[in-house]
């Protein structure tokens, strides 16, 4: 089922067959991410990152979380992964996720991943929120306004739900500006080891109208 359309970009839930392509987009987006570089270390970094993203996508798919693809002339150009309040995060993660993630990346990266989720949960208002876990735009389609269209579609989806808001951890200043333009507010600075980022939150109760802004 389609989730909406903005200009030439159409959004719909990913199929199982598209997870591999989605993982590739996410890998390109997060390859230079400071948090993952710190958590996974230099040795075997690319392999660990691929394994982590592949495992997380599989887990999100299995638990029916919102994996949204964005298409331009039937080509996947962006992807966003949202988890809801019922999805286990941090120390609540299932043991088999911990095992598979540790086998692919090592125990230390797995622990860093869970610690980040616990820290974000601690800072958020209440428990009834969505978390934008992962987001990526194809490198060849960046600087074309697609990121803004992706957020508009996600906020439209949020407005049609019972969730109180959408949270995201942002580590790049240029990305922070995009979220601010879409109605997110900066909540707290988050220090994760040597990496500092910004926790941002879109309050659904106050965001009527903003969700429709392209």
From TrEMBL:
Keywords: Transferase
Organism: Ferrimonas sediminicola
Span of the signal peptide: none
Name of this chain's protein: GNAT family N-acetyltransferase
Domain N-acetyltransferase as annotated: residue spans: 132-189
TM region(s), chain numbering: none
Gene3D superfamilies attached to this UniProt entry: 3.40.630.30
GO MF annotations in UniProt: transferase activity
Domain of life: Bacteria
